[in-house]
Amino acid sequence: MNARPFGEFNGVSAIQAFWQGLMDGGYSSVEYFGSKLQIIDEASALLTAKWKMNKAAGVIHRELWVLQGDGRAKLREDDFEVDQ
């Protein structure tokens, strides 16, 4: 996960710690708008959008979603920016 300007976070524990820190700081209510979805193949898609929440806003440059064997999609790559 690349969370601009905070840095790059690799691995489940590092990514969970980043998001937990935000939630502990009172950040909540994420909302996407202006979303664009590009289907790559039968099992993957790219999402870009703008986002906002109660204490920040920004741009999602790239979310790579991959369909799992059980039919659920999981986020494999996340690249976003906070600009407010």
Task: Write up what this structure looks like.
Strands 2-1-6-5-4-3 form a six-stranded mixed beta sheet, with no helix packed on it. It is of the alpha+beta class. It has one helix spanning 12-24; strands spanning 2-4, 7-8, 31-41, 44-52, 57-67, 73-82. The longest helix has 13 residues, at 12-24.
SSE topology:
Elements: E1 2-4, E2 7-8, H1 12-24, E3 31-41, E4 44-52, E5 57-67, E6 73-82
Parallel strand pairs: 1-6
Antiparallel strand pairs: 1-2, 3-4, 4-5, 5-6
Share of β-strand residues = over 45%
Q: What structural category characterises the helix and strand content?
A: alpha+beta
Helical percent range? 10-25%
Please give the domain count: 1
- How far the N terminus sits from the C terminus, by CA atoms, comes to 19 Å
Radius of gyration: 13 Å
Shape: globular
> What is the H/E string?
EEHEEEE
Largest sheet: 6 strands, mixed
Which blocks of ≥5 consecutive residues have pLDDT under 50?
none
**Separate helix tally:** 1
